[in-house]
Amino acid sequence: MPARFTVGLTGGIGSGKSLVANLFAERGASIIDTDQIAHSLTGPHGAAMPDILAEFGQHMADSRGAMDRARMRELVFREPAAKRRLEAILHPMIRDATLAAAADATGCYVMLAIPLLVESGSWKERVSRVLVIDCPEPVQVARVMARNGLAEEQVRAIMATQVPRAVRLAAADDVIDNGGSIEALAPQVDRLHDLYQQYL
């Protein structure tokens, strides 16, 4: 159990993790987004780029010196071993940066937004509670298609790399249902925010 009360927020692609995280931030929680940390590490001349280029070759950088995401995505979908090699570089860096940010956080409690919290295994031991943002799979698909301009089969391929909805829900201490309207989220966030403050 971490020394400070920490919530691990997760959910499948298109479930609305960022939206929910923003609502908790408005109520005073410190949000640390591991996706943002990963983007900074792999951005132009990011801290992970020398290791990524040494491992995968200079062609994995775009003209700005950032990781060529489309090229890397295509490689890791095609070669599972490449995905493991990339994760071996990124995951320790993401973990260290996340824990450092959590130590510096000034909010009433810390919320770590970790898309692959359930898949990673080790993050579950680093948080006090796991909060899953849930919505029906057809809603996920429609949201991601609209947001990212991807075809349905591309969205479903991404979803297939994540744990099934039932497995994610089984790992949850708390669940927010985001299958409906945005207005339905606030009461759920308020209830959990009140609960989390009781642990402080």
Structure description:
Helix content is 52%, strand content 12%. It is an alpha/beta fold and 200 residues long. It has 2 domains: 1-29 and 108-200, Rossmann fold (3-Layer(aba) Sandwich); 36-106, no CATH class. It has a 5-stranded parallel β-sheet with strand order 2-3-1-4-5, sandwiched between helices. Helix 4 packs across helix 5 (80-104). It starts with 5 loop residues before the first strand and ends with a helix. The model has no long low-confidence stretch (mean pLDDT 93). Its main location: cytoplasm. Pathway: Cofactor biosynthesis; coenzyme A biosynthesis; CoA from (R)-pantothenate: step 5/5. Keywords: ATP-binding, Coenzyme A biosynthesis, Cytoplasm, Kinase, Nucleotide-binding, Transferase. Catalyzes the phosphorylation of the 3'-hydroxyl group of dephosphocoenzyme A to form coenzyme A.
The main β sheet shows up as: 5 strands, parallel
Q: What is the number of independent domains?
A: 2
- As for the CATH topology of the largest domain, it is Rossmann fold
Q: Name the helicity range.
A: 40-55%
- Any idea of the CATH class of the largest domain? Alpha Beta
Helix count, per DSSP? 10
Strand segment count: 5
What is the distance, rounded to the nearest whole angstrom, between the alpha carbons of the first and last residues? 13 Å
Question: Can you lay out the helices and strands and say which pair or pack?
Answer:
Blueprint lengths: L5 E6 L5 H10 L3 E4 H8 L7 H8 L12 H10 L1 H25 L5 E4 L3 H4 L8 E6 L2 H12 L3 H9 L4 H6 L3 E4 L7 H13 L3
Parallel strand pairs: 1-3, 1-4, 2-3, 4-5
Helix pairs in contact: 2-5, 4-5
